[in-house]
Structures
1.
Amino acid sequence: MFELYAGVVVISLVGICCVVWRRNMVKKVMGLGIFTNSIHLLLISMGFRKGGIPPIITPENVNYFVQHAVDPLPQALVLTSIVIQLSVTALALGIVILAYQHTGTLDADRMNKLRG
Amino acid sequence: MRNVVFAVCLLVLGSVFLYTFLSPSFGSWERKDVGRYYLNTGLEKTGSANLVSSIVWDFRGFDTLGEETVLFTAAVGVFTILVFRRKRSG
Amino acid sequence: MDVIVRTVVKGLFPFVILFGVYVILHGHLTPGGSFPGGVIIASGIALLVISFDLKKAESVIKERAAHVFEGLAGLFLVFIILSLSPLRDILMPGGKAFELWSAQQVLLLNVVGGVMVSMALVTIVYLLMRE
């Protein structure tokens, strides 16, 4: 399981560096999405158990279901969090469009130097 | 100056991650009481074979209600930002 | 867009809507539910907006109608979740497990939530693609 946690740390660092070091406003919004998705991966992988099956009851696996199923609670919480990430991305893109209509540029460094 | 602040934030985030992953009982099956309760009593209390849907809509329905409010607020917020512009006064 | 893209999209669009409705309706038997099904329906309409212009997608569902449906579905959802238990027993289906007409409130809430999520996403797509 160590490779999974190292991958989560690397992907979250990529997301944060994308927000800080890119100049285009749309790419900053994409970096926010990458960071959020890596934290969702960490949350779901905390409910894992060895030899696990998904938490869906079918008529075939009623007998050995309780001893082998993975934890269903983090999956339900991540479902809520995905919809909240969608709302944040939609509002952030609306603000980017408004800033483009007001100043005429999408560059974050050039937007710092404009007056009025 | 911006790079110094960024390096300090990275150090804090890395130490938080390291503290979580190196704790002894991280991700072990003995600590999960609530998940085992949902697995045992999910089918006979709600009648749905998909346990994740029964958690989202039946056991923890108020969280889903709050999330639908957030989604509705996002749609109304985009409408207010892009379409509904007030004329400047004065 | 191209003639090939427009012909393929015009032929594939009903099957995308049908698949989205299937994922919403079988939310208590297979993985899925209201949120993935609503996203599938909204991405079918977004496909029409991208390959044709906005007027062709308006012939399927108008922007005003999507906004009204989203508000009504949200009101209905709040009314069902916050109501008392004997009032809920009138509206709910009852039956054996593993069937389509089975779960008590998960089936009804999946359908109402699917309408709300798909109409909210269609509204956001129409607003971001205006001139």
2.
Amino acid sequence: MTKTSRWLSKNLIRIYAVLGFTYLFIPVIYTIVFSFNNSGKSNLVWRGFTFNNWKNPCGAADVCNALGNSLKIGFISTTLATILGSLIAFAVGRYAFRGHGFINSMIFLPMATPEIVMGSSLLTMFIGFGVNPGFWTIVIAHVMFCISFVVVAVKARIASLDPRLEQAAMDLYADERETFRKITFPLVAPGIAGAALLAFSLSFDDFIITNFNSGNVNTFPKFVYISAQRGLPAQANVIGSAMFLIALIVVLTAQFVGNRRKTTA
Amino acid sequence: MALATNRKKKLWPYILLAPGMVWLVIFFIAPIVKLVSTSTQTQGVNIGEYVQSYRFANFIDAFTGAAPQFFRSFLYAGLATAFALMISYPLAYAIAFKSGKWKNTLLVLVVAPFFTSFLLRTIAWEQILGEQGLVLKTLRFLHILGPTGHLTATPFAVVAGLTYNFLPFMTLPLYASLERIDPRTLEASGDLYASGFTTFRKVTFPLSLPGVVAGTLLTFIPAAGDYVNAELLGNPQTKMIGNVIAARYLQIVDYPGAAALSFILMATILILVLVYIRKMGTDEVV
Amino acid sequence: MTDASKSAKGDLKLSSLVKTYGEFVAVDDLSLLIPEGSFFALLGPSGCGKTTTLRMIAGLDEPTSGSIHIGNTDITYQKPYDRPVNTVFQNYALFPHLTIFENIAFGLRRRGIKDVKDQVDKVLNLVELPHLAQRKPTQLSGGQQQRIALARAIVNRPALLLLDEPLGALDLKLRRQMQIELKWIQTEVGLTFVHVTHDQEEAMTMADTIAVMNEGKIEQMGSPADLYDSPQTAFVANFLGQSNLIKGRVVDSDGDANVVEIHGQKVKVLKNRSVAKDSSILFGIRPEKIRIQPGAHQLSGCVLEGGVISDVSYIGVSTQYQVEMPWGQELMVFEQNDDGIPPLAKGDPVKLSWETIFSFGLDGSEDASAGSEVNPDED
């Protein structure tokens, strides 16, 4: 075996991973690049570099309204779904009770149902009860499909908790409530935080279910979809890029802080 | 006193479950039940009015009317899942075993594109692969495609879009499964005379099976019901069942028909999933 | 009621304690009195019920029946946080998200004590780790974690301190050191320690009193010397140190000793060192008590002839011989290497002798191999 072919076979996986990540990021880079395009109405051809879009992100009609809705809906549904889902995760992860398996299947069902089925059936029900689709129907729908993901994420974290830590707490005079407050919850909290982040991403990025249940209310994905036919303004790219960068910074900072706390003397 | 606390202890899990489960029952179970009942209704006296007439022929009508789209959806979803698995597995493997201190950063990078709206990314592909894009120009220049050949508005683009969109859903469960494997198991395999590939075949892959199952399910199910990729990257001949259902609901406004199609889609997926899980031998996917 | 149980003091009394899991009986009618201020060890192999017993004393498991008292206070069904009992867990169970200081202060704070600094500092000095107060548990070595776990329990001055195989994860040298330190701390602080272990050397080094447990029951209880010199069951004889157990028959009486016939040869055992109920007896002698000689010297005490050396192991401190006797049984003999004479060789014919006072007698119906199985999991 020559030196190069040996190097190749050892690093094949790494090379592949680099290629994989590149592939993953191509449309993201494209989106970011074209956010600087001096585009006017339609952002299809490169016309020149400009900061204008970034200086005026709300320039295109309705874009910031849509973004605002997405963010509001995101925060509300994340909060609700995280609370409801975490409660279920504690129930299912800690207690043996009648119907345990049945509940597990019920949680799994929304993840096994295509969005189009969930969205259209929910719309039908709303209309049937005379409720017009709008902001709150979107929130309701988002909470609904996020709960399952929250349950899975939090349950995993609960499962990794050493029960002897809670026993030690009770041995050291903490009753059940104190044990939960001082030991269980702080240790499960990172899992809950991760679940919340997941729920927010799912909510913000959701299109199909939202499309069916939003009426006239615009969300960011809906805005992009509708504008795609007419011509997508560069401001959409700006917002997409900004969301990406903000999220990246938030998560990497949380990582960094977490790592530093682990090694603090 | 012991009896009272015992009963409270027994009820506690149900109390925790209640709010979330009630939400799911009202906003997930109930609509689906209503969906099933709608699917057997027929047109009433006035336009927009429907009566329950238990017309099971609705299902047959729906299916025959949209059979090609059904099969196409499962084909595209299947292909996308297979491609996603092939692309994600080495990626997940690299992150789990070969990334050292960069592990967490790489994980974040896998999920990060998620934060750019998936619609923006799909549209980006549409433009990258489209008329104005470099890719097409290069392929035409190299005569791989003829002067009228195109990449968008083809089944290829739709499958590519589906594959791309669900990569994080495939990568993360795979990573979670691979990460749990004790690397010493792989060393032991090598010590017992297995080559690299055999170790993979006989040890690594079987141990990562729960992740494979979870990832393929999380990819196939949404892919089968998707219509955005078909809409943006395809043409009228590549319509998936999602497009048909959406049209029935929002444009043609044929609720029983749309409901019947949705029900068939959901039931088919559920059956496939159950068979798949049973065959793969994992009891708890959740 | 909770305040009274929190301040209970006195001897620990277990009365007819039973714990069953379905068909399986983990603890079988256990009764025990552990005097206040003593260092008590519960010794036994894995699965003998010692950890289950400990957990019931701590309140982490509920007994199926029976009672637990500290002094006059019945704590059988008290919650763990209502008992004046603290536990040092096998895997330390230090709270990973709290500093060492907060870990130690945890019990004090739960009891409403505001000014914790002095007490925490004092106990950190006791375990010689004052500089680690602001670290997190994951930054400590195994030995350090173990000492912090101990400090966390001791700082609360409980009536009873329970230790669940706390030294299991430490390497040999560190374990030896910790055994001595734990014993010293117990004497310093004066608390009652109940130490659960499967390591008989550890129990004998540290404890004032040992209870040997097997299959949910106590086989024998007493001081380390009592248990070692005068075992009353085959299990104890084999579990503590090693024993040669030979089936025999009591054929005669000679003053304060019984004459026992073993495969045609005669040996003696003092009557007050034999628990055999009738003429059937399991005769016992420890390997280190036996003198091994090749020739026909004048031998005192009990003598067994006709042995042939089948294995020699040089251990440094001693040489261990396996001697095959005429009736087929292999006896063990340990000789200290303290006389400069080179060891005997495989195949040498030898005579075995020992002082009669070292013989002990067990009931003839006992299983001679009880307690001698090598334990596969040492943790």
3.
Amino acid sequence: MITQVILNAVVQTAIYMIMALGLTLIFGVMKIPNLTHGAMYAMGAFIHYSLIEWFDVPFVPALFIAAPLTFGGGAILERVFFRSSGSGANPVVAIIAGIGLTYVLVNVITNVWGAWPMRIQTPFGHVLRIGSGAISSHNVVTTGVAISIAALLYALLKWTKFGCAIRAVSQDREEASLIGVNVNTVGLVTFAVGTMLASIGGMFAAPITAASPTMGGTAETMGFAIIILGGMGSLGGAIVGAFLLGFVDVFVTSYVSGGWGGAVAFVFMIVVILIRPSGLFGKKGRQI
Amino acid sequence: MDSMLDLLKKKSTYIFLAATIFVVVVPHFSSPYVLRLMITMASGIIAAMCLNVVLGYMGYPSLCQNVFFGVGAYTMALATLRLGVSPWTALALSPLVTFVIGYLAAIPFLKLRSMFFAIGTLAFTGVVSAILMNLPKITGANAGLRGIPRLVKSDINFFYLEIALILVILVLTVLMSRSFWGKILIAIREDEDLAPHFGINTTRYKRMTFAATSALTGMAGAIFFSYQTYISSNYFTIGSSFTALAIAVVGGGGTALGPIFGGLVVVGAPEVFRGMTEGMTLWRPSFVGAVLVLVILLSPGGVVGLYQKLASYFRKGGAN
């Protein structure tokens, strides 16, 4: 039993991690909670689904077509609704705009694809046995993707000029703009990348949990809990937070009862912020 | 005497009179459906007015307003159904219970600021929603609890009850905003780190404000679910708290009357699209979302802000 539970927890962590990395990236640069994240998580899953079902694109190439599409979607959202120099300047306005957009996006998904959960066939159907536990190769791939995304993001932020610009903007927007960083472009790309990550999370979660228009709601809230726990805007915090909450969620679900997993994970987060209001890896100064 | 004459000259006096007549007369001539809508709207407005104090005056965007609405409602339901208390006693109990829960919630969450507070309280809503869903023996979970006794017999009286509560909160908000307390809240909103240097115990004021507004929201919850006679955990899902925030912000944060206009827009907008053809009905949530996005993007100050903008625009036009 314990091996199986650990394997499940690892996969859950992987999905949460993809979700939370996007959120924390957007929060770090734009200082707004992106409430369209959950809707775009579902949108990614459904775009991917239609490429497979309607256009007969195989699973993996469909990923590479759907991801850029959601990147474009994220770019449009940022440009029209969330630009920091415009309506994104006020976080409360961004929250309300996010709620309104979520209504629209979820409604569009429901009307185009239907309200019923859909299962997406994955080509990675093979089941691997590890000790007394079993894990499908889809779950192995999902975990691998999550780790590669984290590594890629780290490399992007650490070693590229653009990553340096992202870090500069997230530290101090005005000073970054003074030294010649185009803060609008940085915001646009960050938001688009974050949205794309949410959608990729949805694409990999859909074969596991089935895709429904409202699938993003819980995932989004869990994503927020993770980045608060880890410290908002911190990539390492998002990874550690995803691990902690993923494991708490799956262990409680397995050993106590299905419904309590999320609740206990939230309580865990609340306890941590009671002790450290800025989260595990958040700097004091990040408390805006 | 002078003040009386001033009152007669003021435009707001007439608006207030018109509103009073509307509120007293209209329910008698409206269909049960419209009355139900008005009662729902009124309870949303109460929740938003309470949130407005926390958000607009104190600067904390709370996303757990619906939790307190629910705590008050479940106090009403459980006290009457399980303990056999009379509904009016339960109505008196509900703000007390909600006050305590609100105060306890304030201790951890008010340590967070701004967006952290928003997301923290969102997670709190998630916890409460899970508790309601996972304790079917006590809360009835999805299936819910039926047969909550009604406070008053007719629906119209429920509406008046809510209007009375709205007036009480309106008066309290205006009194508060003019008092020392209100000034402290604004000081907290403008610069929370500076306020303690003037000898203000910000923590105490923040917690008391949060708990007091929670208590009034709880009372609204008790009234609404006593009207409805049925409660289930489906009313308190994680996204449910967005409504109160939407009403408060769309109306115009930090203004006493804002939530009333916000309620008309946010709760009223879905109804405008109800009479549409079948094909259009499918897209109703999209219209509602679009209205929300448009109002907030066109005027971050909400409906009240939009009115002020337009008024000053026309005033300028007149001067030219």
4.
Amino acid sequence: MGGVKVLLRNPKREVEVTGPLGAAALVRQLGYIREAVLVIVDGTLVTGDATIADGSEVEIRPVVSGGSL
Amino acid sequence: MKCRVCRGPAVIDIRRHNAGFCADCFIGHCRAQVERALKEHSMISPGERVLVAVSGGKDSLALWDILLELGYEAHGLYIGLGIDGYSEPSGQYVHEFARLRGVRLVPVDLPSDYGYDVKTGAAADRRAPCSACGLSKRHIFDRAALEGGYEVVATGHNLDDEAAVLLGNVLRWDVAYLARQRPVLPGRDGFPRKVKPLVRLSERETAAYCVLKGIDYQVDECPMSVGNRHLGYKDALNAIEERSPGTKAAFYNGFLDRGAALGTDVAMAEREGLHPCPSCGAPTTAPVCAFCKLVEKAGGDPRRRIPVTAL
């Protein structure tokens, strides 16, 4: 079944972590701030207290955009 | 975590509200926040047509979607900036959004319509790319609204954008910019009112709104914005927000509530000094407006008229 596959952006890349683990813990483990990302597990948005099982596909989607404000 | 409204399973947690929401209740929450901003700041009067500045990113597409759902006659304005590998997919998201909903879109393309792109404009005028981009967009928003007879232009500036700009203005105590940093900028001499209906929503909320509504948007960061000063301010504010949820909203809303008088005299003096640019007619305090100077230096034509035709 393998671990948890995680898609990261900017630049786009994939890492694998060992599950099960909480969504908020995953965000922290990868060095992100919760306010700056969404966690999408198998295509569904989840809250920080969600548990992510091995075999899941996760996207950590950044929400911070900048430039000309 | 349960939805604060219906007690069903939550899909998004908003720490500054100490609340979770299910998909349907979250969409309702976003709509309610926009309705509240529109009402509190008297942004759009009944019957007014709105031109929504859309980039293909989450904020502007969420804004356009919410305004349409609230029943406004909201048309889109997309400006192709000529940024390699970025502008084309961004435009595709906007066109697809408009096509799926059968709504009117006004496309403008800097390279083909004005003869320059953001990179060449920035280099020619010795500005940062984000400065050249913002200057170009603000001018074209005004021009397109004027040509198309729109009373109001709506932009997707969210709570994080406004808090970051406010932090920058406060760090430099730039009173003139503070005076202009309002959710509504009044119209003048035929130029449109500018409104920011997303000021009560964070960018995490607008991104979640798009995910939950199935709105495809440009997720990748603009390659020209790397190292942008406002992104640094956002990082700093998010680090504070992580420890003290609600700080960004308190910072920005406190400014609106208690800092409103700051710089009023500066703003009035600045408005009195405005006159039409002899080249394009846009209000400016300089002999020729900054947009015309940039375009002429970049070898383009600033006097082009916007074709306000439906797509």
